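Researcher: I need the complex structure. Ligand is manganese (II) ion. Inputs:
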Amino acid sequence: MARLSAEYEEKRDFGSTPEPRRNGRGDLQHPLFVVQEHVASTHHFDLRFEIDGVLKSWVVPKGVSTDPRERRLAIHTEDHPLSYAQFEGVIPEGEYGAGAVIVWDRGAIRPLDDRTLHEQYQAGHVTVWFEGEKIYGGYTLVQAKVGGNEDHWLITKLDDDAADARRDPVSTEPHSIISGKTVGEL
Ligand code: MN
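Model: Output:
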């Protein structure tokens, strides 16, 4: 079981929040990605990749695009436990990230070159194939250091058969893949 950084636990009061405390694997396909839609102080999407036994995490304010011409900002944030890929619920008022979370999409990922996901992540250049229900095909996630900020990455759809400039699933496919609810219905 991989060690989880202290930052995740330090930000949360597990007596109040329903979020998971520990790492666990569950019965999902691995390695996995998950995209969670989250209405906190800002409305955003959280993109997480299973790397080194934890969920490496980015806030993607606009969500993941299916248009290869569109580069979207992804802001690196603290690692989350693997069990967070199952989390859907409401984080109470006063807690870190207070607000509703749905599992917007989830599935397996695999590297698209001969490096491991660990090597890609360490190099700041991740090229993966997604097998989600809404998001599939190739993407790159590149550490861009926009404005000198090391946490700023950019995610772009590769121009493959799954690319579709008109699909826009963030707007047209808002339902949780677990409960069928939108984030507003939770
Ligand atoms: Mn979030």
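Model: Summary of the prediction. Strands lie at 32-39, 43-51, 54-60, 71-80, 89-91, 99-111, 125-131, 136-143, 152-157.
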